[in-house]
TrEMBL record:
<dbReference type="Pfam" id="PF13516">
    <property type="entry name" value="LRR_6"/>
</dbReference>
<dbReference type="InterPro" id="IPR032675">
    <property type="entry name" value="LRR_dom_sf"/>
</dbReference>
<dbReference type="Pfam" id="PF00560">
    <property type="entry name" value="LRR_1"/>
</dbReference>
<keyword id="KW-0732">Signal</keyword>
<protein>
    <submittedName>
        <fullName>Uncharacterized protein</fullName>
    </submittedName>
</protein>
<dbReference type="Pfam" id="PF13855">
    <property type="entry name" value="LRR_8"/>
</dbReference>
<dbReference type="InterPro" id="IPR013210">
    <property type="entry name" value="LRR_N_plant-typ"/>
</dbReference>
<keyword id="KW-0677">Repeat</keyword>
<keyword id="KW-1003">Cell membrane</keyword>
<keyword id="KW-0675">Receptor</keyword>
<dbReference type="InterPro" id="IPR001611">
    <property type="entry name" value="Leu-rich_rpt"/>
</dbReference>
<feature type="domain" description="Leucine-rich repeat-containing N-terminal plant-type">
    <location>
        <begin position="29"/>
        <end position="68"/>
    </location>
</feature>
<keyword id="KW-0812">Transmembrane</keyword>
<feature type="domain" description="Disease resistance R13L4/SHOC-2-like LRR">
    <location>
        <begin position="308"/>
        <end position="468"/>
    </location>
</feature>
<dbReference type="Pfam" id="PF23598">
    <property type="entry name" value="LRR_14"/>
</dbReference>
<dbReference type="GO" id="GO:0005886">
    <property type="term" value="C:plasma membrane"/>
</dbReference>
<dbReference type="InterPro" id="IPR055414">
    <property type="entry name" value="LRR_R13L4/SHOC2-like"/>
</dbReference>
Length: 874
């Protein structure tokens, strides 16, 4: 080998080894650019500490910087701040459950902490224009930061080298710079989750001209469009023309309206199409079936209607299909059985009616959600072969029939089985051993009883959630049950006929969060409770004896309980004074028991309490001063007890969140304090059947009694309150000793629906402005001393379905109106009224018979208006 060749080879080898073994060294001017850029950026947790001016610092090695290995130019900037992933382990043990709705407090604390941590990490400040000096930058990701509602800096549109631009979730507002279309090399554009111009901006037209794009994400940005449009491309029909290479399009969670056009011409490359959570109407276009490249199609949460087109069956590459939460109807087309690549299929929350047999061909399916439709028949006839299914939801349909062992034997991978709300019967042998191991089982409303189902014992590996409510079980809970399922987090066996005592069984499941054994025949003492329970419902059973042991037993342990419902049992004695360790309680219901004595002082430590219902017991004493401390109360129901004394003025001053104040049927006396009007959110005020005196406060018009969109925490009791939360607004002051006039200010409560002032001693006229209370459904002013005529405006109350003015001193003609004449005459008797519906003409040919000669009640005409019956002569 001659030496020059040797040297050449040697040099070549050195060069190669330098290139390969030594890292690229960044270009000085680009390093300066980055330092300048950093200088303007807010970096609260100093994440860019490696970006420093230390001599020889190689900017290609700085965090988030990637250089081109050949040219050494800076090619990529990864400056995103990922939101920390929710880690179950952060939830205070033992409140870990997969249903966060059930333990809102615990989860909120974790979210708050996560958010704080995230805020400390996120970049902010200014995105300096010096970035344009990075002439070779092709990847820029500044997503997940907080640039304080500034507009997207327009200079970004001049970095034409960009192929990948991610501005997602970065706190941008305002307009998208129009010259973005100059980014003629852009393949990936993600502008999602910003708030461009608040709400309601159409997708800007230049987006339609960015025809190099492969990936376009404009989700969750408040874009509007009528009909669905991208700029001046009148609609998706031309998607294929504008974006010949587009593979990924996400327009979800915007306000896009109108119809999805039925011409989707030449869309040949689209793999993912997400139009979910918009306001799209009309049918699913048949032409969607031609987009044969689709792998993921999501049209959920719109208002799409009509049948599912047969053509969708042609999407044989599709892996996920989500049509849930629309108004689709008719059968699932047989052709969908051709979509044999499907792994996840969601058709829930529509009005679909028929399940085709062909679904049995979807042998790859792992997730199938059919809940809340109108499917009938036995679903397992079609599902029998789907051996890969792990998540099956058939809940809330009209499925009916008998399910046997054979129907379930090939569902060997089933792990979540949601099947409540149907009319199905399970008929299996006593030794049935299912081939699946479930984590989640909800067979509520199946016929499973009368014996406790023994096969459940086989589900002992992973079961976390077990609901068998309303299943006809008439039995004890077997003792193996509590040992077998000690890792369970939710247990719902409500609405059965389960009997026996619970004793210490509820101490066994070490991490149980939710226990619902309501509406059974359980008896004896209340059970001991594991500290992990967050929600306990033992209402409508036959528990008796004192609550003392239950409440006071474990005074050393902090209890996590948030919801406690012991209503409708036979509990006795005083409510024990041991509430100190129960400070997470949000909702307590002790109604309809036999509790006596005073309100316990230690309840003052329940500062998170929002609802307290102790109605229908035998409690006494004055209005508990300790409630001053519980100022988050929204519902307070003391009705049907023996409380006495006055209603303290601080009720209005302290309990400002109150929506339901129910003191009905006690022995409260004295005036209704004016301060009660400070409870601006009140919706139901029920002070009936007490001994209240004085006038009705005139300040009532400062109450809104209006319909709030109530964000409700009353988990598990929604049904009980749903009908009237945000709906019923009522005042009931009946059966007291109130005097004076009906304040005309009361008539300003436009949203009030029920007004009952009966059985008092109110006098004066009915205010003429009563016609303003247009929401009124029911008025009862009977058994007072009201006089004068019925104001004619009352016939404006077009929703009125009940009006009782009987036993007053009203006179004159009953005003005419569609409504009033349809009420029963008994609602007007014992006054001095005439005209329909009373069979008394208002003409002068009236002969008056006084049946009651007590003249205390006579007016100046000498007619007794208390108990008068007037007989028509004509
Ligand atoms: C400067 O950055 C280098 C890495 O690039 C790092 O090792 C060094 O600790 C940093 N110096 C300071 C003062 O942050
Ligand atoms: C943009 O960033 C977000 C959040 O950091 C990420 O979820 C998304 O996948 C990114 N988009 C692209 C196109 O890379
Ligand atoms: C966009 O590109 C056009 C032509 O390529 C050019 O004339 C125009 O100045 C560019 N706009 C911006 C803001 O860079
Ligand atoms: C859409 O806009 C482009 C440029 O702004 C224009 O050339 C084109 O004619 C428009 N198309 C329609 C259908 O208005
Ligand atoms: C769609 O593609 C076909 C075949 O490539 C072509 O003939 C037709 O003109 C295209 N349609 C439009 C509207 O460009
Ligand atoms: C499915 O596609 C085939 C050919 O690609 C076509 O003949 C057929 O009509 C399509 N089916 C439906 C229901 O659109
Ligand atoms: C698709 O489904 C239809 C209707 O069930 C059927 O006629 C057709 O043969 C199927 N096509 C394929 C390719 O399986
Ligand atoms: C269950 O699977 C076995 C084995 O794959 C098969 O022979 C049998 O026919 C299947 N049963 C049903 C009901 O599909
Ligand atoms: C439930 O199904 C049975 C037959 O399996 C039927 O007799 C019964 O009426 C159904 N109940 C309801 C509420 O539909
Ligand atoms: C109502 O109050 C009066 C005095 O104001 C008292 O005599 C009467 O006993 C009270 N009635 C009840 C039921 O408390």
């Amino acid at each position: 080998m001659n030496s020059s060749l040797f040297i050449t080879v040697f040099l070549l080898l050195c060069w190669v080894s330098l290139c390969v073994c030594r890292d690229t060294v960044c270009i000085g001017s680009e390093r300066e650019t980055l330092l300048k850029f950093k200088h303007h950026l807010k970096d609260p947790s100093n994440r860019l500490s490696s970006w420093n001016a230390t001599a020889n610092s190689n900017c290609c090695q700085w965090d988030g910087v990637v250089c081109n290995i050949i040219t050494s130019h800076i090619a990529e900037l990864h400056l995103n701040t990922p939101f920390p992933t929710f880690d179950e382990d952060l939830v205070p043990n033992p409140l870990r459950t997969f249903d966060e709705d059930l333990v809102p407090n615990a989860y909120n604390y974790v979210y708050e902490e996560l958010y704080e941590e995230y805020s400390r990490q996120a970049f902010g400040g200014e995105i300096n224009a010096c970035l344009v000096d990075l002439k070779h930058l092709n990847y820029l990701d500044i997503s997940g930061n907080d640039f304080g509602s500034s507009p997207i800096p327009s200079f970004i549109a001049t970095i034409t080298s960009l192929t990948h631009l991610n501005l997602s979730h970065a706190g941008f507002t305002g307009n998208i710079p129009p010259h973005f279309e100059n980014l003629s090399n852009l393949l990936y554009l993600d502008l999602s989750s910003n708030e461009f111009l608040g709400e309601g901006m159409p997708i800007p037209s230049f987006v339609g001209r960015m025809n190099t794009l492969i990936h376009l994400d404009l989700s969750n940005s408040g874009f509007m469009g009528i009909p669905l449009q991208i700029g001046n491309l009148s609609n998706l029909a031309y998607l294929g023309l504008s974006f010949p290479h587009l593979k990924f399009l996400d327009l979800s969670s915007n306000i896009l309206q109108g119809i999805i056009p039925n011409v989707l011409e030449n869309v040949t490359s689209l793999i993912t199409l997400d139009l979910s959570s918009n306001q799209l109407k009309g049918p699913i276009p048949t032409s969607l079936g031609n987009v044969s490249s689709l792998i993921a199609l999501d049209l959920s949460y719109n208002q799409l209607e009509g049948p599912i087109p047969n053509s969708l069956g042609n999407l044989t590459s599709a892996i996920t299909l989500d049509l849930s939460h629309n108004q689709l109807e008719g059968p699932i087309p047989t052709s969908l059985g051709n979509m044999t690549s499907l792994i996840a299929l969601d058709m829930s929350h529509n009005q679909l009616s028929e399940l085709p047999r062909s679904l049995e061909k979807l042998s790859s399916l792992r997730v199938l959600v059919l809940s809340s439709n109108r499917f009938s028949g036995n679903p397992f006839e079609s599902l029998i072969t789907l051996s890969k299914l792990s998540h099956l939801d058939i809940g809330d349909n009209c499925f009916q029939g008998v399910v046997k062992e054979g129907h379930l034997e090939n569902l060997t991978n089933l792990s979540e089985f949601h099947a409540s709300g149907n009319n199905l019967t399970l008929k299996v042998g006593p030794n049935w051993h299912p081939t699946f191991q479930l984590t989640y089982l909800d067979m509520s409303s199946w016929q499973l009883g009368p014996n406790f189902p023994l096969w459940i014992q086989s589900q002992n590996k992973n079961l976390q959630y077990l609901a068998m409510s309303n299943t006809g079980i008439l039995d004890f809970i077997p003792s193996w049950f509590w040992e077998t399922f000690s890792p369970i987090t939710l247990l719902n066996l409500s609405h059965n006929y389960i009997h026996g005592e619970l004793g210490t069984t509820l101490m066994n499941p070490i991490s149980i969060n939710v226990v619902d054994l309501s509406a059974n025949n359980l008896c004896g003492k209340l059970p001991s409770l594991s500290t992990s329970v967050v929600s306990l419902d033992l209402s409508s059973n036959s528990f008796s004896k004192s609550m003392h042991d239950f409440l006071c037993r474990s005074q050393d342990n902090q209890m996590w309980l948030e919801f406690l419902n012991l209503a409708s049992n036979n509990l006795l004695g005083e409510i024990p004074d041991c509430w100190g360790i129960w400070s997470y309680l949000v909702d307590i219901n002790l109604q309809s028991n036999n509790f006596v004595g005073k309100f316990p002082q230690s309840m003052g430590s329940l500062t998170k309490l929002q609802s307290l219902c102790i109605r229908n017991n035998l409690l006494s004493g004055t209005f508990p001063t300790i409630l001053k401390k519980i100022n988050k109360l929204i519902v307070l129901d003391f009705g049907e007890n023996n409380f006495s004394g006055t209603i303290p003025t601080w009720v209005g001053e302290r309990l400002l969140d109150m929506k339901f104040l129910i003191l009905r049927s006690n022995k409260f006396w004295g005036h209704i304090p004016d301060k009660i009007c400070d409870m601006r959110l009140i919706q139901v005020l029920d002070l009936a059947l007490n001994n209240l005196t004085g006038n009705i406060p005139t300040c009532f018009n400062s109450l809104k009694f209006s319909i709030f969109s109530v964000v409700l925490w009353l988990k598990g009791r929604e049904d009980e309150y749903k009908s009237f939360l945000g709906l019923v607004t009522s005042i009931d002051l009946s059966n007291n000793k109130l005097v004076g006039e009906i304040p005309s200010e009361l008539m300003d409560l436009y949203e009030l629906r029920f007004l009952n002032l009966s059985y008092n001693q109110l006098s004066g006229h009915i205010p003429g402005s009563i016609g303003n209370m247009r929401s009124l459904l029911s008025i009862d002013f009977s058994r007072n001393k009201l006089s004068g005529e019925i104001p004619p405006t009352i016939s404006n109350l077009s929703f009125l379905s009940m009006l009782d003015l009987s036993y007053n001193q009203l006179k004159g003609k009953i005003p005419e109106g569609v409504q009033l004449q349809t009420f029963d005459a008994s609602n007007f008797i014992a006054n001095n009224l005439c005209g329909p519906p009373l069979p008394i003409s208002c003409s002068s040919n009236v002969k008056v018979h006084n049946f009651d000669h007590n003249d205390k009640g006579s007016d100046r005409l000498g007619v007794n208006w208390f108990f008068t019956i007037i007989i028509l002569v004509n």
